[in-house]
Every structure is written in structure tokens, then in C-alpha cells.
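User: Please predict structures.

Assistant: First:
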Amino acid sequence: MRTKKILLADDDYNNSMLLKRFLEQEFDNAIYAENGKIAWEYFQTFKPDLVLLDINMPVMDGFELAQMIRSCNKRVILFFLTDRTEKADRLRGFKLKGNDYIPKPFYPEELIAKIQERFENSTDESVSIESLKKKGYVLKIYG
């Protein structure tokens, strides 16, 4: 499996640096952006597999960033990490195709476990008839 890349977007520098250290213990490639605008720029060049988004950020909030990301990439994994716990905010996060919505405070170990599970259950391999045949599957179409 290739190295997974993680983008962390949050305006709380101290907590983000602590979380980034946790991420780097498990994953080789994690970068930090202190606001949504910088995160958008990093997203386009870094091409992460997972984006961890705070909602309350200056310049561009996490909802706006998620919408921009989803407009060009449907496959990247999005986790909202936020202190906004209202039902309307959670629903908005999921309507923007967020894969998880994790309220702050949270245990970094729990987040790492969720990320690992998501990476294990996602695949870059596309399914084709040929790949299914190689695995011994038989396709029968009835008309």
C-alpha cells in the first residue's frame, strides 16, 4: 500500500501541532494549514488521501472548504473535527459528503483508529471485469 497523505486544517495552532505529532507517529505524510484558504491551496498541490477539517477557521471555514473539495474530488476522505456539535452542523457536514464528524474534545488515539479503519476499507484499485476474472469470479448476465 502506498503512503497515505493527510491534510490537517485548523486555526488552533497548539492543538494542531500536538495532533500532527500523533498523526506522524502512524502516518508518514501529514501537513498542517491554519485556515481554509491555505488548506485549499495545499489540497490542490499535496493531493491528500484524508482531510481533517475544523469548521470555525478564518478566511474560509471548513464547510466552504469541504464544498470546494467535493466539487473536484469525490473520493478523498473528509473528517470534520470541531467544537460545533449542533444537529444542524452535523447534518450540514454529512450533506457536504463528510465521512465522519468528530466533536472536540476527542482522544487522538480514537481518531487514529478511525483513520486506520477508513484507510483499510478504502481502495485505490478499480474493479473491472478483468480484475474479477483474475480473482476467480464469474460474471453471468441473464437477459
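Second:
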Amino acid sequence: MKKEVILFLLLLLPISLAVCEGCLLGDKCIGIGEQRLTKENGYEIYCSQDKTLEKAKELGESCFADYECKSYYCDMVCKKGTTGSASMSISFIKFLIPSVLTIILLYFIFRFIKTRKIKKPVKKQQGVKIRPVQKKDYDKIEKDLDKSVEELSQLSKKK
């Protein structure tokens, strides 16, 4: 019983000691460099390197990192660029294409495996091979038949 209690406490210890490494927004932890749109104020904020919540900067304001700007593009000043939502959609597509291709590949692999398991090797039937009858064969059969009839008639005469 004591071992179970100690094990339970050891499992809870990391959860109780979990510390936010970024900024606290209400009861949520925002990582350094993450941006959020706040419902209360209606503007975007980010968690800075010194772990404080800052308002995201507009175009033309000085900056040091992309996450400081609303556009997610910093080149000493916030600029309009292809980053932000456009880069997110591009990165999503870059993620989506390999994922879809992997799913398609797995589908065909499993389909191939399934069809291979169901198909059983077909056994060749052992049997008599029938060849087409030729005219020579008819003549031979007729001669053999005549000979058999003669032999039977001779046997019947002897009795």
C-alpha cells in the first residue's frame, strides 16, 4: 500500500511543480514568441523574451523578432511580407502533402497485402489429356472392331 501511495505522489510531483516558462495569460501559459488575440482588448499580444506580455507591433515599428509584429515579418522594422497567415498556409500545405501521400501509400500497401492473402495458388488438375481424333484413328478402331467381332463369332461357333 505504501509503495502505491509513493508512486502516486511521484507521478503527481511533476504536475504540481509545472512552471510556466513563458507568460501567464489568465490561467494559460503562453510560450515565449507566441502571439495571441485577446478577447478582452481585441488586439494581438505576444510573450517577449523577458516573459512579459506585449502588444504586437504595427507596420513600420522597430522590432527584433518576427513574433513581435502582427505581420510576423521583422526586418529591423515590422514589414508586410509573405509570412504570417500566408506562410502558415504554405507550411500547412508542406505538411499536408507528405501526410496525404503517406496515407495513400499505406492504403495501397495494405490493399496489396490483403489481396495477396486472399488469393490461393490454383492447383493444376491431374487428368487425362484428350487429343483430337484423326481419320487414321477411325480406320484403326474400325479394323480392331471387325477383328473383335470375328473372334467373337468364331468363339460362338466353337460352342
